[in-house]
Amino acid sequence: MEDEEYTRDTLWRTYDGRELPIRELEDSHILNLLNYIGRKYDLAKQYLAEADPKDDIMLEIRQERFDAQESLLNVINTEIDLRGLDRNRVADGKSLPFKKDGRWMEWKKGDPRPTPIPNSIDFIKPIGEE
């Protein structure tokens, strides 16, 4: 298998179908990716730890998956640092709302799909406004 190296120019397909380089994603998207990629990284790390050390092929596959998730998580963390974003906004698996087809949505922890949320002046604020 070929190693995948992610960069800020790696294209990311958003939930609404757009494909943008990571560097062009919205701040809220980058922060939401921290949790999403973080979960995938943790799972890949767990699978790697559970791999049978005698099964060279499975060990190699799991190592490559872990390395890919680690690379992508490093890019997301770099992007957060470059933008000076506040990781606390997505602490403990919390996600930030986003718009899809004119409707506000959020990824609730553990849900496989985003959930529509009612429009409310309380949460429709750009990042940085309190």
Descriptive account of the structure:
With 130 residues, this protein is α+β, with helices and mostly antiparallel strands. It has a domain at 27-116. It is built from 2 helices and 5 strands. The protein has helices at residues 27-50, 56-83, and strands at 11-13, 19-21, 98-100, 103-106, 115-116. The strands form 2 sheets. The protein has a 3-stranded antiparallel β-sheet, with no helix packed on it. A hairpin with a 2-residue loop joins strand 3 (98-100) and strand 4 (103-106). Helix 1 runs antiparallel to helix 2. It is globular, with a radius of gyration of 17 Å.
pLDDT averaged residue by residue:
86
Strand and helix order: EEHHEEE
- Helix count equals 2
Distance between the termini: 46 Å
Quote the beta fraction.
5-15%
Low-confidence stretches: none
TL;DR of this structure?
With 130 residues, the protein is an alpha+beta fold.
Write the layout of secondary structure elements.
Elements: E1 11-13, E2 19-21, H1 27-50, H2 56-83, E3 98-100, E4 103-106, E5 115-116
Antiparallel strand pairs: 1-2, 3-4, 4-5
Helix pairs in contact: 1-2
List its traits.
5 strands; 3-stranded antiparallel sheet; about 40% helix; alpha+beta; about 130 residues; two-stranded antiparallel ribbon
